[in-house]
Amino acid sequence: MRLVVDLNKCQGYAQCAFLAPDVFTMHGEESLVYNPRAGTEQREKVARAVAACPVQAITVEGLREASDAG
Amino acid sequence: MTQAPLLRRITDHSSRADPYPLYEELRRTPVLHEEEGGPYVVSSYYDILGLLHDPRVSSDAANLAAAGDDELSGPEATGLPPSFLRLDPPEHDRLRRIANSSFGPPHRPRRIDSMRGELAGIVTGLVDGFGDARQIDLVDQFAYPFPVTVICRLLGVPREDEPRFRGWVDPVVAALDPDTRQGGDAGFRRTVQEARMQLGMYLAGLVEQRAREPRDDMLSDLAAGHGPGGSMSTMEVLSTAVLLLIAGHETTVNLIANGMLTLLRHPECLHRLREDPGLSVRVVEELLRYEPPVQLVPQRTCIADIELRGVTIPRESRIWLVLAAGNRDPERFRDPDRFDPDREDLEHLGFGSGIHICFGAPLARLEAQLALAELARRLDGPRLVEDPPPYRSNAVLRGPRHLHVAVDAVRPSEAVYF
Amino acid sequence: MPGEEFHEWLRREGRIVIVGASLAGLTAAESLRAGGFAGSLTLIGDEPHEPYDRPPLSKAVLLGRASPEHTELPRRREIDAAWRLGVAATGLDMAAKRVRLADGEEVPYDRLLIATGVRARPWPKEEEARLDGVFVLRTRDDAVRLHRRMAAPPRRVFVVGAGFTGSEIASACRDRGIAVTVAERADGPLVGALGGVVGAVAAELHRDNGVDLRTGVMVTGLEGDTTGRVRAAHLSDGGVVETDVVVVSLGATRNTDWLAGSGLGAGPRGIACDAGCRAFDFRGIVTDDVFVAGDVARSPHPLFGYQFLSLEHWGNAVAQAEVAAHNMISASADRRPHLWVPAFWSSQFGVNIKSVGVPTMGEEIMITQGSLAERRFVGVYGHRGRVIAAVSFDNTRWLEFYQRQIETGAPFPVEYRTVDRRPEGRKPVPADFPDPSLPTHGPTVTLSGYSPADRRLVFTPARH
Q1: Which terminus of chain C has fewer CB atoms gathered within 10 Å of its CB, N or C?
Q2: Do A54 and B285 touch (CB under 8 A)?
Q3: Which residue out of C396, C402, C403 would a mutagenesis test of the A interface target, given it has the greatest number of A Cβ atoms within 10 Å?
Q4: Residues B97, B359 contacting (CB under 8 angstroms)
């Protein structure tokens, strides 16, 4: 899965880093470092992260389709 | 204790089941100031969001007391210093950072993620416990015991002590209700102070014990007194522990209970959730907008004049931010009174925003997602016994006191991975 | 054809060509389709790769937490485009409405969007730049090469230039335990972008994290060994630093060379366009079929005195591409202006640095929240009595308040109380930007005057 975070929007709430710690990590208190390519085994956790982002800054390709298929 | 009409009607217990028409009325006066010395009530989405990020708005309990609120939680009142919820930076940032270093990223990124299996086990066990009953109180039998069990495990508070601390938590939570605060007599205040004191002393005993024999829980980390985020004084540890214990379950119980109530009123959503547990993620986010467990934030003050929609809010005024009204603001959300888990662009105010955004949000989300998915899957033919259900009196932490649900059967548990 | 009819035809069966297949180009393509464009769409990119995201290349990738080959941008929708990747555009014939490609082909258009972005400014001495171990970091291929070399690991990395990218590279090196020297011509890192007051904090960040930071020096030469590998960097103060990897981080050059002689108002500072993203020709007349978006654009902004701004900002690329796409297929009455407030972020040494507005316009700065000493603060820049920009170090949640202050032209100095206002923040101090005549780099927002037809070829690295 490809993903991108709009880091202008991001305010470091770290919800994604709590919910999908293999994809999103905090570097310091409010800097987000993420892997723009997440494995499909991360799909469900990434979906949680995307939904939980308080500023809706995460875009993922194929999350919906994958969800329908799964 | 005269309270002007609209606010009075909102905080009045009789509006608890459906405050939303009153919020709609409230939004017609975006900055409502009904009486001299009373709060400025802000109810539109963008105004609330702006004030949550406005450095002229203070959360400091001392400022609130100075603004004339009947303050129960000041340092003199309880002997405990205010928790970070009631402080401004830099103290807020320091205490929250230390608490977070034991809870989440960057220092403990997997603590919550690693609890998922345990959370699922607790949920399954509670539903198993319904047995053959054909009528269940989802509050007393599920929505309350679940988050209490979780926060006890996380903090390291013995679960069996719940009957003890519940007696202290209840008055403290009641004190958050603007209605009781305004009407509270000296006796009530004494009860609240006593309860806080007892709770603090109870937790002090545990903290002391954990300092001697640390375990893998947050009290042990806090008791250690030093960590990657810095160190807290003993009193700061206690007020943080009190905050986490209370906030850790008093809001989630409402999220789950409001959630099940909403799903039972929207059977098509309940059906979809039963078929697709993954939908719980979106259901919970929409619930946080549609029926947020924290309805309003009554504890802010401004430390400078603020111009808002042509109104000057003078410095040292109290400001109420009605999150639940902002969440139904048609300027922000299309068809806001519709419960719609498929909604896109869902930047709700359910957990607040800015530096005081809900500390436990990731845990509350997981708890509610697991809880609702499990209930949807296992309750056969669930229906409300009474609608609306009886509500707790609290206008801030709003939720049903009981949620009696009749069922045809409770299905057996099975391992579900989603 | 009357305007409305024309645009209907355009939306139905027009030909749109986008030169530049990166963030702005892809966003524009997606926005065009989202906006109902059903005609033919061609994306031309000089790199052989499909659109990828660049910020992770100097962050997650260098930290070893992502692959340089896998930062492709997620697609928001199907765009049904003809892709011409790995083929650079080499010329534009505005009269014939054709783009010439490196392989000799010509692609006709009814509407053209130019989103060719910028490229890393190379080490100016070509022979030294060719030494093995000398890198720039802008493209995916750059990142792959550097990533490979970093894995070795090198004994010491030498970074030329302490702008944002240079600082991020240094940060990643320290995170991975690699020794690193940073040489900066100004008095501190980020000085060109944020001024000396903030630069001093950045300098402390570098040093506390074990970076060998040399400021106020120029790199006079890179020295190779007999096998053609870089072995040392020579400094203007006489210093010599032994190194096996050099990363040249001297800012960027706009990709406008291919437009030479086209008649567009394009030069080394970018392509001038109006607030509706329509390109100016060199006479200062706005075109109606050539649009510009992203790093290569320079456009006037009412909040900043209508000066032309060049923004090397991720968010600007997205916002401007959306506006350009909308305007390309809309009649003039329906067009929108691009009024994005500049916003930028960088992550280094575990600190989140963000800015809004145009710090380089600031004459003075006030620390309105937090403290420089704690490296957690909000600084507000003032320009002629109003708030023009703000910067935060690990204080991003307050920044949107200051953005509104900028948007509403709030007065400066900031008089009101704020939470966490310290004594040091009560009075404005000079923001301490370097003398414009002193070359520095990495400002990310560049004011480039009032002339849309600026074609000066004189190179002045920053603060033109």
Answers
A1: N
A2: no
A3: C396
A4: no
- In chain C, which residues have their Cβ closer than 8 Å to the Cβ of A25? 65
Span of B59-68, C349-358, C397-406 with lowest mean pLDDT: B59-68
Q: Which of B89, B106, B354 sits opposite C420 (nearest CB)?
A: B89
CATH number of the domain encompassing residue B367 = 1.10.630.10
CATH number at residue A53: 3.30.70.20
Q: Is B357 on the interface with A (CB under 8 A)?
A: yes
Domain count of chain A? 1
Which structure tokens are listed for C230?
């870089």
- What is the number of other CB atoms lying within 10 angstroms of the CB of residue B38? 18
ipTM of the complex: 0.94
Q: Confidence class of residue B176 from pLDDT cuts 50, 70 and 90?
A: confident
Q: Do C417 and B53 touch (CB under 8 A)?
A: no
Residue C173 has pLDDT above 50, yes or no: yes
Report yes or no: C94 and C281 within 8 Å, Cβ to Cβ: yes
C298-322 pLDDT, tens digit per residue, is 999 888 888 899 899 999 999 999 9
Q: What is the CATH number of the domain that holds C80?
A: 3.50.50.60
Considering the domain boundaries, does residue B349 fall inside one? yes
Parallel/antiparallel/unpaired status of strands C240-242 and C230-235: antiparallel
CB-based contact C417 B304, cutoff 8 Å: yes
Shortest Cα–Cα distance, A49 to chain C (Å): 16
Look at residue C458 in the predicted model and tell me its pLDDT: 36
Domain that residue A33 falls in:
3-69
Closest CA to A63 of A23, A28, A31, A30: A23
| Parent domain of B132 | 5-410
- Among C217, C250, C283, the domain boundary falls at C250
Number of domains in chain C: 3
Q: What are residue C429's phi and psi, to 5 degrees? A: -125, 160
Q: Is the residue at B65 inside a domain?
A: yes
Render pLDDT for C339-394 as a digit per residue (tens, 0 to 9).
Answer: 999 999 999 999 999 999 999 999 999 999 999 999 999 999 999 999 999 999 99
Provide the pLDDT for residue B110: 97
Using an 8 Å CB-CB cutoff, list chain A residues near C67.
37
Residue C415's pLDDT band, with cuts at 50, 70 and 90, is very high
Q: Which residues of B touch C387 (CB under 8 A)?
A: none
Q: What is the span of the domain harbouring residue C328?
A: 3-119+253-334
In a domain, B416, yes or no: no
C101 and C206 in a common domain: no
> Has residue B418 been placed in a domain?
no
Which chain B residues are closer than 8 Å to C416 by Cβ?
56, 304-305
Name chain A's partners: 3 or more CB pairs within 8 A.
B, C
Overall number of domains in chain B? 1
| Residue C351 to residue A31, Cβ atoms within 8 A | yes
**DSSP line for B163-192:** HHHHHHHHHHHHTT-HHHHHH--HHHHHHH
State which residue of chain C sits closest to B53, comparing Cα positions.
C398
For testing contact with chain A, the best of B53, B255, B275, B281 (most A CBs within 10 A): B281
Same domain, C382 and C268: no
How large is the average pLDDT for residues B110-129?
A: 97
pLDDT score, position C444: 63
Half-sphere exposure of B309 (CA within 13 A, CB side): 18
Note whether A47 contacts B: Cβ–Cβ < 8 A: yes
Residue C461 included in any domain = no
- Which residues in B lie closer than 8 A to residue C401 (C-beta atoms)? 50, 53-55
| A42 interfacial to chain B (CB closer than 8 Å) | no
Contacts of C271 (CB under 8 A, 6+ apart): C114, C254, C256, C259, C264, C265, C279, C280, C292, C296, C297, C298
Please compute Rg for chain A using Cα positions: 11
Q: Which of A6, A10, A28 sits opposite C350 (nearest CB)?
A: A28
Residue C110 CA to residue C400 CA, distance in Å, equals 39
* b/e per residue C164-186 (b: at least 16 CB within 10 A): bbbbbbbbbbbbeebbbbbbbbb
Q: What is the CATH number of the domain that holds C443?
A: 3.30.390.30
Residue B230: per-residue pLDDT: 79
